[in-house]
Amino acid sequence: KTINPREYMLFQSPNLREFPFSFSFIPQNEREAEDAIKIIRFFRYASYPSVANAGYTYTFPDMFNITFGNIDSLVRIPEAVCTSIEVNYNPNTMSYFAQNNIPVQIDVSLSFKESKAITRENIDQGF
């Protein structure tokens, strides 16, 4: 015999979901390599807040609307914020383009968190 701990789940609220995405940039020339660097800079810039009111407050980072093309069968993602970006330059090699020493492969991992919790009513809307 053992004592019943009488544990019960207490529902407080739905959790905000996270959505990770991973990409590998393998540019074929220096222009594509420079474009990859610009894309990374865009996501880094958009994932951080800016300072307002003489440094006393922050503004929110940019919001993203993530879609999967014209595929209606996939789950929709509500507006989300990029919460992390990880970049791995040349994960498999030490080769660089001759001009500007840009790596020939860049792996990027992005993580997004939805801005609001979804409910059953949102499921009917495709979320």
Identify the notable features of this structure and list them briefly.
4-stranded antiparallel β-sheet, single chain, two-stranded antiparallel ribbon, 2 helices, alpha+beta, 6 strands
Measured distance between first and last alpha carbons: 46 Å
Structural class: alpha+beta
* Rg (CA only): 21 Å
Q: Helical region count?
A: 2
Q: How many strands, what sense, and barrel or not for the largest sheet?
A: 4 strands, antiparallel
Q: Compute the average pLDDT.
A: 87
Order of helices and strands: EHEEEEEH
Tell me the overall shape. elongated
Compose a concise summary of this entry.
The chain is built from two helices and six strands.
Structure description:
The protein is an alpha+beta fold and 127 residues long. The chain is built from 2 helices and 6 strands, in the order E-H-E-E-E-E-E-H. The strands form 2 sheets. Strands 1-6-5-4 form a 4-stranded antiparallel sheet, covered by helices on one side. A two-stranded antiparallel sheet has the order 2-3. A hairpin with a 4-residue loop joins strand 2 and strand 3. The model has no long low-confidence stretch (mean pLDDT 87).
